[in-house]
């Protein structure tokens, strides 16, 4: 037979063989790749010219300048090789056999760990029908476990003829002629990793397997979390190894979270429009390889050693987190790829088999269906796409040790013929897989397609991000507390969210509140601090004229846009942040915190910093090494205490009130959750439907045979201190209060308890480190660096702004002329330095110890001048008037009743049963 492949390169047809590169015992490897519609596929191996080739006796040498086109030689010989002197590389191309059941095969006579390779594919060129085969383009192995190199913005990256304009834009038609520019040297290639050793993980620490009832998720970015970490040597900052550092792990343990949810760490590639603007995708939701880790998060030394060392650093990070007791959850993006729309580059799937991999318009197959907003959508109606995704997930779980996955835009993964169904084959594949079905599987339950909001509809065993919880909590504590705002969230809505959102997740037997991943902040949107500082997004740095990012933030700036030098405003902001975190951590369900919110991190009002790989998104840790205790340290202590309290109570795994009866309208009262109004009575139907009711008590009851204390979650959503009659069957003690952020907490009788005012001179942990301690030198070094930058023990104003260098701005808020620090400029633009109202507030509040609560109105900071004036007048009054006499008599009466507690205005509080 003409052009037949010699027997030494052929392998038997193997039905349903998985694609990939498999090392064999003869020192070679089997390469298998899927392309159902190609006419020919080649496996290409790359070697340095100054080393002997492994294929000297197997491949025919072809030369540059030959009258015979390279493509013809590739078809004519089972294996041919060429040397590209300008790149000092040898490319050997093996013609593959196929398609057999859609797969192409070849056996390499020699293969090695670290071998660089790619595919070339030929076939029809008909863009109007979605067919874009081009043998001049290098294609990554979809199953490749390592990656080397990056795409350059060059005509070689595109399958169609185009050019790059002087201003960096791609000019050409995706429906025009095929490009004949060779992509070698302009595109990344795959790297083979030999992982046949089945015993290599035998000594690994066991997976923590944290039960859902104890899980506290912590979302972080590998680079951003440690890029500024002062405890790390420079070479470990922003790396996998930095996250695995003992001090990093100790910090996470001290906070108390249990499961680290990593933003995408699969290899990524910047979207075309970002490359055209010279920007980078920081978040990583633009996947280049589903089996390869992102190399840029590895240490420089690991990157220099190659893909195997990068992967080993990831494995060691996971091992270290496991050893410290943490689960590792990976954010994964299977809804689309980095190739974008038809105008995008060709790096893998488009060149292998665009018709099979991507969803297409039925009446116009040359155009892609896009339910992701990213240009393309993986076709999960294709069994082989489902298999590809499952194989990738199993690889990360089995070989890397990942404990669970969070699926980005998961509604897209469950669409059949365009419509979502929880019975989708991919979702069944996850459920039924013996490995994946036992991991934590978390869905982002929406996309941009028709009827894209699907919260609560995925079914067992999936958990889902609960955006209803996010919005309700924000509206209750922020938007509804503005001056003149009409309450939009009342007791019924808040009670539903506190109980795990039965209206969304009571969909089938066994599906309980743990399925609701509660959050108030994620990577996508304002930070917690920015929710209390900004009414509007400030995304100017993104270069999209502030058009990107949502305008629906439900935020409250408490009267001043951006950082404020008013102690009153900052105290109210801190209380609001504690209310949100308190609601999150005291609700039934699975809480998720975003990294940095525990100490007041800010992104300067940017609610869409997806392309900000800089100080805007990198966490600032200067506060941690101050000599005096900062506001950030105090917030961290309050949140750590609340997490510890939650984990100590075995009350967060209840399903009695979470039954299928809710589907037919029978809401059976739970014996484990009870509700009270402030007067101690049980709410009636009229109370539940009264949207103005904002103060109530939620009781979580232990079973009689359990030696566990009941707790009361007491919410005062009004703008005044309020008296609550607590259940009389037990005594109660306040364990935690968001009011501590402003120096008050609930107390028996007619007045709230005022706690000691935080002392700015309180010493931080750095001052009590023993000279013999190994960390002493680090503390001294970091503090010396902070002192040199005038950031050691920064003034209180700087603390209130989150410690992000705002203290370097002059008092009147005018940025220093000629400064090159973009974050100083950002802060200066948003800081109200010369605002007369802000200065007047500061003058008033600096002369007196302003007490929040009591006379406060529901309007919050909007009526701050009136509020401060009333308190000042009351404080300077010569004698109490009749109203004060009546108040004192009422307080005296309340003091005689131990069941009455006064709860500070706008607070959430935990009362624990006294044994």
From TrEMBL:
Residues 552-567 have a biased composition (Polar residues). SUPFAM superfamilies: (Trans)glycosidases (SSF51445), E set domains (SSF81296), Glycosyl hydrolase domain (SSF51011). Residues 538-551, 863-873 have a biased composition (Basic and acidic residues). Residues 538-567, 792-819, 859-900 are annotated as: Disordered. GO terms for molecular function: amylo-alpha-1,6-glucosidase activity. It comes from the Bacteria. InterPro entries: GH, GH13_cat_dom, GlgX_Isoamylase_N_E_set, Glyco_hydro_b, Glycogen_debranch_GlgX, Ig-like_fold, Ig_E-set. GO terms for biological process: glycogen catabolic process. Gene3D superfamilies: Glycosidases, Golgi alpha-mannosidase II, Immunoglobulins. Residues 219-646 form the Glycosyl hydrolase family 13 catalytic domain. Belongs to the glycosyl hydrolase 13 family. PANTHER family: GLYCOGEN DEBRANCHING ENZYME. This is Glycogen debranching enzyme GlgX. It comes from Bifidobacterium vespertilionis. The lineage of its organism: Bacteria, Bacillati, Actinomycetota, Actinomycetes, Bifidobacteriales. The gene is glgX.
